[in-house]
Amino acid sequence: PQKTLTLLWSLIVSVYCIGGMIGCLCSGYLTAKFGKKKCLLFNDVVVITATLHTSFSRKAKSFEMILVGRFLEGIGIHINAHIQYAGEISPKKLRGFISVTPTVFHALGKTVARILGLRDLLGTEDMWNVLLSFSGLVALIQLLFLPFFPESPPYLLLQKQDEAGCLKAMKQLWGEGNYQTEFNDLMEEKAITKGTKIMNVLEVLRERSVYPQLCTMLLLLLSLQLCGLSAV
Question: How far is it, in rounded angstroms, from Cα 46 to Cα 77?
C-alpha cells in the first residue's frame, strides 16, 4: 500500500540521522579511548559493511538491508574523528587551513552526490545501488592507506603519555627536523589539562557557565535544520 511505502521511504531517509546521532554521542569517548586513527579504521569497516548491505539489497529485494545499511552509514564517526585527526597531524603553519578543509569537501561531496543522483545519470532504477556504493569505495581507499600513518602526536602524548612515540610520529609526519617547540606546546597543554574531567552531554547541559555558548550553538544548528535547506 502507498501509505506503507511512504512510511518505509521516510524510515530509510531518517534512519541515517538516527545512526548519526548515536555516532556523535559516542565519538568523544571513542576517540579519547582508542585514538582518532583506530576510530577512522573502525569507521571505514562500518561504511564498507553498510555499502555492501545497501548494494546487495536490490539483488536480494530487501528493504531491510537498505535500512540496516543506512543506519550503519550514519553511525560512522568519520566526520568528528577525521577533522580532529587531520588537524592534529598537520604542521603548525597549516593546521588552521587543514582543519577547515573537511567542511569544504563535505559540501563538495554533497554537491557531487546530488548531480550523480539525477535521473539522467545514476538516479535510475538500475543504477541507484551503484550510486550508494561510492562512499564504500572511498572508505576502502582510506582503509588501505591509513595503516601507514601514525597516530596523532597529541593523542600519543596527552592520552597515552608516550613522549618517545609522540616525537617519532612528528618526524614521520613532518619529516626530519627539530620539533621541540611543538613538543613543548603539547607539554604545556598536558600540564594545563591535567586533572581536568571530560564532561559528557548531560554534564555539559548542567554546567551553567557554558550556557551562553551552548545556546548560541543550539540556535545556529536548529536554525539550519528548520530553514528548509534539507527539504530543498
Answer: 10
Rounded to an integer, what distance in angstroms lies between the CA atom of residue 156 and that of residue 38?
13
Q: Is the separation of the CB atoms in 162 and 194 below 8 Å?
A: no
CB 170 within 8 A of CB 182: yes
Is residue 39 predicted with pLDDT exceeding 70?
A: yes
Let me know: does 72 contact 50? Beta carbons within 8 Å: yes
Residue 206 CA to residue 13 CA, distance in Å, equals 32
- DSSP track, 95-125: HHHHHHHHHHHHHHHHHHHHHHTSTTTT-ST
Name 36's Cβ contacts closer than 8 Å, sequence gap at least 6: 81, 82, 84, 85, 88, 151, 152, 155
pLDDT at 131 over 70: yes
Buried-exposed string 105-122: b where 16+ CB fall within 10 A, e elsewhere:
eeeeeeeeeeeeeeeeeb
Query: pLDDT digits over 55-104, tens only?
Result: 787 777 888 888 888 888 888 656 677 888 888 888 888 888 888 888 78
Cα(50)–Cα(53) distance, integer angstroms: 5
227 pLDDT band (50/70/90 cuts)? confident
3-state secondary structure of 230: coil
> What 8-state DSSP symbol labels residue 178?
-
42: left (phi > 0), else alpha (psi -120 to 50), else beta?
A: alpha
pTM assigned to the model: 0.75
Closest CA to 168 of 185, 142, 149: 149
What nine digits make up the cell of 134? 561510492
